[in-house]
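can u do me a favor
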């Protein structure tokens, strides 16, 4: 097993500042995104907000939820074949959990 030196936030900051995302990093982001999405529940704390440069890279307003930015960035770099993209799924889950 390979230990990760970077967190998904580190990968996002790298992407925002022009670094390429490797296939391994992309898979890590997908798994991290899925875990964060499944953790969104009404009884949990409000999800963290993203830094402005991450919101800019995601083409979302400043102070957006970090998970929304991750979803938008993943939709750009690795489009889903699903009918609903990750951003729309995330938006729906946030709304259903009272975070809109």
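np, heres the sequence
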């Amino acid at each position: 097993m390979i230990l990760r030196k970077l967190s998904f936030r580190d990968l996002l900051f790298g992407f925002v500042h022009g670094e390429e995302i490797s296939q391994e990093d992309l898979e890590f982001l997908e798994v991290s995104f899925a875990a964060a999405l499944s953790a969104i529940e009404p009884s949990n704390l409000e999800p963290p907000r993203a830094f402005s440069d991450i919101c800019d890279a995601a083409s979302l307003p400043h102070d957006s939820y970090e998970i929304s930015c991750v979803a938008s960035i993943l939709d750009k770099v690795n489009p889903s074949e699903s009918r609903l993209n990750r951003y729309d799924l995330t938006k729906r889950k946030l709304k259903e959990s009272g975070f809109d």
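The helical segments are 8-16, 23-38, 52-58, 66-77, 86-96. hope that helps!!
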